[in-house]
Amino acid sequence: MSGRSNKNFRKYVMPCWTVLLVSLALIAHDQFSHSVMNETLSKNELVMPPTEQQPKHVIAPAALQPPRPTPPPLFPTDPKRPIIYLIQMEGNLPPPNMNGADILCITWKNRRDPCVFLPNSTWTSGRNYMWKMVTMMDKKYEYYVFMDEDIVVSNLTLWEETLFRYRPAVGVPGGIAQVHPGVDITVESRVLTCFDAAFNAFHYDLVHDSLVLPYIDLFDKFGWWTSQLYMIYLTQVFYDGEVMGFFRPTTTNGQHRYYPRGWNLSAANKFWEEFIVADRELRKSFVGYSWTAKGVAQPHVTKQRFQAPIDLLSEFASMENPYWSRIAKIRASPNGMPPLAEGEAITFSGEDMNKMFGHKTKEYK
Asked: What pTM, to 2 d.p., does this model score?
């Protein structure tokens, strides 16, 4: 080859080969990156971003997937803020942004996008719907905060910082924690036996692998407090010492509506002992509806796991009595709200606490 031809080869042909090789390298890199990204998405179980019409922190219904037999025990997806707020709302106002945290919201009276509208749902059935939806989501969180819309936390950043420093099975802020008058609440945290159910942070394992959730809806026509009471009782039995109240972030509750407030503690306790946890040995840490503070809580240095043993879950799931048979139906339901069969609902004769709150109407609206 002549010197001139060789020069033309270098001038025109070699750059073409260079461009081709670079293009092939970029294609290979892109395929490798795509493969790694897919693998990462699979491992971390990320959810697709919500639609542009919705605030980024609101979980869209399209993100909810069909139920799987066994949710994988992986959490959290986003280590920067592994928490979601599940909010029950009337629907007159837009959902709070919770400082940009993920939220899932439902409304029971008025439609309010992007919340799910569940007309005339009860407190219990609304909670169970949200519970069922998050168990079907691919995205996982370390804590799931079930809350009423009228609860306002004084310092949300402090609340989350304290929650993730202590890492309890259940965490509640001041005003939700229930302790006897005279108990020192100038400390940062105490171990609790009782708490209000209006704002509760449940660890991943209590949502996905425990006997605490879902809530029982058999008593909703009698009173909405009973479903909360049994949830609290179950935490006493199975998570003794791991329910913590944090007193420095406080809460206020600005609204008190009419709803069924039938109350009969002795009847509720009798049903508890007969059908829910009859084994006295299991009930050794049970104290009942007692606002006992067991001592100052200690932070957990590392992430905790609170999974219930499989044999224990199987034992209670197979019980054929009014409580656990109904819980099995709720778990198997696609939306956590299976209709009650005729005669399945349970009521007690008890005091109507609505009179104490000044509610004169007898119809829930």
From this structure: 0.80
